[in-house]
TrEMBL record:
Signal in keyword set: yes
Lineage of origin: Bacteria, Pseudomonadati, Pseudomonadota, Alphaproteobacteria, Sphingomonadales
Region forming the signal peptide: 1-21
UniProt protein name: YHS domain-containing protein
Superkingdom classification of source: Bacteria
Alphabetical UniProt keywords: Signal
Length: 151
């Protein structure tokens, strides 16, 4: 089972309920709060486990459609003002991504980390173009926070 990374950057942060009310280049910032994680063990999320083969050819681990590394999220209305995220793999035996964030890329290595998931939540069209919607769940216990991402 090949793991395909997302090759295009996430282009905006927007809430699904507000998507029709804003233009394609507008950013919406609202707070979503849940006492418990919105996504559970059986929901599709990334990193996702895989296993294949048998005997000496057996392999297993976790793969993700979200490319590991540093990402700069920018506001289309203010491209100079961005926020940095670093996504890394937690390890072969656990299905979390490690997420660090900072206002400056140089601060990422010393910033606090959270266990995170990326969850595909649906598809829509904006201005006739197909858009994938993803939720980034940061944290996995009470107090999780979410970003809705459009790609």
């Amino acid at each position: 089972m090949p793991i395909m990374p997302l090759t295009a950057p996430f282009v905006s942060l927007a809430l699904l309920g507000s998507a029709a009310a804003v233009g394609t280049d507008e950013r919406v910032a609202d707070v979503i709060h849940a006492d418990l994680p919105l996504f559970g063990e059986n929901d599709a999320k990334h990193p996702a486990p895989f296993s294949e083969g048998e005997g000496e050819n057996y392999s297993c681990g976790y793969g993700s459609r979200v490319r590991w590394g540093d990402w700069k999220f920018t506001d289309p209305q203010d491209p100079e003002a961005g926020h940095w995220y670093r996504f890394t793999n937690y390890g072969v035996f656990h299905c979390y991504a490690i997420t660090r964030d900072a206002s400056d890329r140089d601060q990422l290595k010393d910033s606090r980390f959270e266990y995170s998931f990326f969850v595909p939540v649906g598809r829509t069209r904006v201005g006739g173009r197909p858009i994938e919607l993803w939720a980034m769940q940061i944290g996995s216990r009470p107090g999780s926070s979410y970003h809705l991402l459009a790609r």
